[in-house]
Design brief:
The chain has 305 residues and is of the alpha+beta class. It is 25% helix and 18% strand. The chain is built from seven helices and nine strands. The strands form two sheets. Strands 1, 2, 3, 4, 5 and 6 form a six-stranded antiparallel beta sheet that branches. The protein has a three-stranded antiparallel beta sheet with strand order 7-8-9, with no helix packed on it. It holds the Pfam family Dicer_dimer.
Amino acid sequence: MPNWKGAKISAAFKACVKLYEEGELYNFLLPVSKTECIAKVSEELFKNWKKHNDDVTLRLVGKSHHRLYERQCPEELHGALPQLGQKSYAYAIQFFTDFDVNPYNAHVVKYLNNKSTYALLLSKKLPLLAEMPLFMSQGKIRVRISNQPREFVVQTNQQLNTLINFHTMIFKDLLQLWKDFLVIDRRNLENSYLIVPLDSSQSIDWQLIESFQSLDPARSYSVIERKQNVYRPENFLDKVVTKWYNKNEDEQFVVVKIRQDLNPLSDFDNNQFKNYVEFYRARYNINVVDCSQFLLEVNASVLEI
């Protein structure tokens, strides 16, 4: 090609030809929709569904959109809350990465390969479960529920309530999947189990559970408070932090590195601002009170799957 523009046009055209050959584009180079892709394979994959007038390619709205089959909870998760003085089974959640490690995703691999993990704690034993693939922005991971549970006995009501509070904190405060008006269902019916942390020896991490019975909501800090606070690197590394100065209170990040080689007076990463002091003053109307403090390198994708 005689110039860059022509080369780009040629590459784009060849890409369209390849997509057309793979069935991703129509004759007019328009993309094939998801519904149309499903329709192509519905005759083979969903032929039994149509016997019950359940067309997977049809989207119904309103009262006419009803479930044609009964949704059931697995028997192993029904009435399975841990009980006082009885054996409970902790099934560790194991993660395996299927992507190459590089400087940008090394922290993700470190978290997922950590011997400390979470587990399903319930009073019933689970059958062997299939491994499940999940996809993060870094690549594919595999999730497996251990087939060799650890046995525990909850001794007191206080221990049980502490476990329930931690479970609630995970879904309500950390993952923010529960709204404030929702409460935990203690009737021990469907999907009755608890999420608990395991330490590196695969024992229940009671210290972590007791330390995080709830998470305080993000709040703004006065200049006096920020001057009085003492910031230590070990208090931030691998922790989840929230930008208290941001209007989006739900925005959370994992601290992946302590940048002691940088401070608020370091050059900003673009030419729009001279340094971080200028950036925070212009963007958030905040004056940095300690220009010698270290900076935090964070990542949001660790919390997203």
